[in-house]
TrEMBL record, chain A:
Keywords: PQQ biosynthesis. NCBIfam families: PQQ_PqqD (TIGR03859). GO terms for molecular function: quinone binding. It comes from Actinokineospora globicatena. Monomer. Interacts with PqqE. The keyword Endoplasmic reticulum does not apply. InterPro entries: PQQD (IPR008792), PqqD_bac (IPR022479), PqqD_sf (IPR041881). This is Coenzyme PQQ synthesis protein D. Pathway: Cofactor biosynthesis; pyrroloquinoline quinone biosynthesis. Gene3D superfamilies: Coenzyme PQQ synthesis protein D (PqqD) (1.10.10.1150). The gene is pqqD.
Length: 89, 354
């Protein structure tokens, strides 16, 4: 897990919806409406930063970020097809 | 309860299609070319959809490439900020055309494949179509777009499942969607010929499981169960009028592509009523929102939040009332109609879609 450097799947991109006034991620199978933290986490998923790097970046930026929350958010985004699965790196 | 704005729109640009798939879910009563929306009407529908909250547009049909204005509609949807998904049989998808569509804003393509070998595929599609598909897949990959291969499974191709998976891998698919036939439109007409046997479905599971393991991280394999053979129905469309809307070739706005079968409902047309009003206020979109419309056994069932009582179109088609429990459910008092339908019939010929 600590080696996992999450990255967006091919065809997925971050965006901003002026209608809902919220960040979103658009990808082949659908759309996920994001809150600010989720947007920041996804923005850090560049395929280079590992999960501990992302957690460190988030704790520096937001109060009360828990590593487990970041990990479960990332796994949820894998399950929805936004991020590449962990095994695949 | 105020509904949330929609996230997706299925734009059925035309019902015209060079293929005649026996499993096609399009309606028996296809919209003719003269009644199709004009380019400007489609542009207006797309603009209204974005203003309403739609972020993903699926350009489908029929065959969307049969519309000559497809490139300009792609540009328009992309310019609005929508994610554009092209759903195609691949016929007529040359490399030059694909590059142009990608440049204009198509971000993902779903390519349908009928079987693992060309002869079988052409019989299922009722057209000499299969030989064009490999080049279409290559054109999509060459344009740098993610490729999903869609295969509708039924009695006449389940035996090729392993070879279909190999083909998807060989053609460089990012994703393979193996969907057992849903029985609407022409597929309902051909139900007896298409119904997979229990043995076929049982054989499919280990094949899919092994493929998922082998292809992990390369090709995502999605397998959609045959819902007639499941114990409970699927939560259709995440709920009626909850996340998505469909615009038919003539501008009829539907909560799901099959909803026109429910004869008791009156569906509005995007050329006659603003899309936002149709989404929030129309009788058709409000008919089965939430849970108030439910009858027993759904009304008091613990699973109603999970499966939403199944599909309203299927309930209507099989029991005559859309408010009934989807009869796929073992708890439905009409479940016997499904039990009878899954008994394998002797091989009957296909009625090809027009
Ligand atoms: C109606 S088709 C239109 C687009 C294009 N002509 C094609 O076939 O790809 C849209 C999608 O629905 C799938 N489909 C068609 N009939 C179906 C059925 N009875 N059950 C499940 N999926 C179906 C097709 O494989 C295709 O991916
Ligand atoms: S499923 Fe087949 S017949 Fe139906 S629209 Fe697609 S390619 Fe045409
Ligand atoms: S009775 Fe209705 S809610 Fe309960 S499982 Fe069956 S379809 Fe779902």
């Amino acid at each position: 897990m600590s080696e996992w450097a999450p990255r967006l799947r091919r065809g997925a991109r971050l965006g901003f919806d002026p209608v809902r006034r919220t960040p979103v991620v658009l990808y082949p199978e659908g759309v996920v409406v994001l809150n600010g933290t989720a947007r920041a986490v996804l923005g850090a998923c560049d395929g280079v930063a590992t999960v501990p790097d992302i957690v460190a970046a988030m704790t520096a930026r937001y109060r009360g970020v828990r590593p487990d929350d970041v990990l479960s958010l990332l796994r949820g985004l894998v399950a929805r097809g936004v991020l590449h699965p962990e095994e695949a790196g | 309860m105020t509904p949330q704005p929609p996230l997706g729109m299925l734009a059925e640009l035309t019902h015209r299609c060079p293929l005649h798939c026996s499993y096609c879910s399009n309606p028996l009563d296809l919209v003719r070319r003269e009644r199709e929306l004009t380019t400007d009407q489609w542009r207006s529908a797309l603009t209204q959809a974005r203003e309403l909250g739609v972020l993903q547009v699926h350009l489908s049909g029929g065959e969307p490439l049969a519309r000559r204005d497809l490139p300009s509609l792609v540009s328009h949807a992309h310019g609005l900020g929508c994610y554009v998904n092209l759903v195609t049989s691949g016929l007529g998808l040359s490399e030059a055309r694909m590059v142009d569509l990608a440049r204009r804003g198509v971000e993902h393509v779903q390519l349908s494949v009928q079987a693992a070998d060309e002869d079988r595929a052409d019989i299922i599609a009722g057209a000499r179509a299969a030989k064009h598909k490999k080049a279409a897949a290559a054109a999509i990959r060459a344009a740098g777009l993610p490729l999903t291969i869609n295969v509708v499974l039924h009695r006449r191709n389940h035996d090729q499942l392993g070879a279909i998976i190999d083909l998807a891998e060989e053609w460089g698919a990012d994703r393979l969607e193996l969907a057992n036939t849903q029985f609407y439109g022409w597929a309902m007409r051909n139900r007896a010929a298409l119904m997979p046997t229990r043995a076929q479905l049982d054989a499919a599971e280990p094949v899919v499981r092994a493929a998922r393991q082998r292809l992990a991280g390369r090709v995502e394999v999605v397998y959609v169960l045959a819902d007639y053979q499941d114990r409970h129905p699927k939560p259709c469309m995440h709920g009626w009028g909850a996340r998505q809307l469909t615009v038919a070739p003539d501008g009829t706005v539907l909560p799901c592509p099959s909803a026109h079968v429910i004869t008791g409902l009156r569906f509005d047309n995007v050329t006659e009523r603003p899309l936002a009003e149709i989404w929030y206020e129309s009788s058709s979109f409000n008919a089965y929102r939430g849970e108030d419309w439910m009858r027993d056994p759904c009304r008091t069932c613990d699973r109603r939040g999970v499966d939403l009582g199944g599909c309203r179109c299927q309930a209507f088609l099989l029991t005559g009332a859309a408010e009934n429990t989807d009869p796929v459910c073992v708890l439905s008092p009409h479940h016997d109609v499904v039990e009878q339908a899954v008994v394998p019939a002797a091989d009957v010929p296909f009625v090809m879609r027009r």
